[in-house]
């Protein structure tokens, strides 16, 4: 059962050659496009950055408030009361931060 098989290179099919040709043409087109535009990757515009910032403020406030409320519940043994209070305060803090950013 431990017979050694002779080392043979895999046979390339016409489909493999077509895929290789396609990949080469794609690399060439990408290189021409990078040369034409003068940049490697497009830079995000101001609206995209603002949207990401608003999203992170809202999610960060919610997660931060939830974690702090959960920890306070475990320390003081208040059931889930402080968890809910922390979530609400986190959401309100997130919205406050969003309003502050939007008013600039």
Automatic annotation (TrEMBL):
Keywords, alphabetical: Membrane, Transmembrane, Transmembrane helix
Keyword Transmembrane: yes
Naturally occurring in which organism (per UniProt): Sphingomicrobium lutaoense
Superkingdom classification of source: Bacteria
One Pfam family this sequence matches: ATPase_gene1
Name this polypeptide is given: ATP synthase protein I
Stretches for region Disordered: 1-48
Transmembrane segments: 50-72, 78-99
InterPro entries referenced in this protein's UniProt entry, alphabetically: ATPase_put
């Amino acid at each position: 059962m431990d017979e050694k098989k002779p080392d043979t290179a895999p046979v390339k099919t016409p489909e493999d050659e077509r895929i290789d040709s396609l990949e080469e043409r794609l690399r060439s087109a990408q290189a021409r496009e990078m040369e034409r535009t003068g940049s490697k990757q497009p830079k995000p515009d101001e609206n995209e950055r603002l949207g990401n910032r608003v999203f992170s403020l809202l999610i960060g406030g919610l997660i931060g408030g939830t974690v702090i409320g959960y920890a306070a519940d475990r320390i003081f043994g208040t059931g889930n009361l402080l968890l809910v209070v922390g979530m609400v305060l986190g959401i309100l803090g997130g919205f406050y931060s969003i309003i502050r950013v939007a008013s600039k």
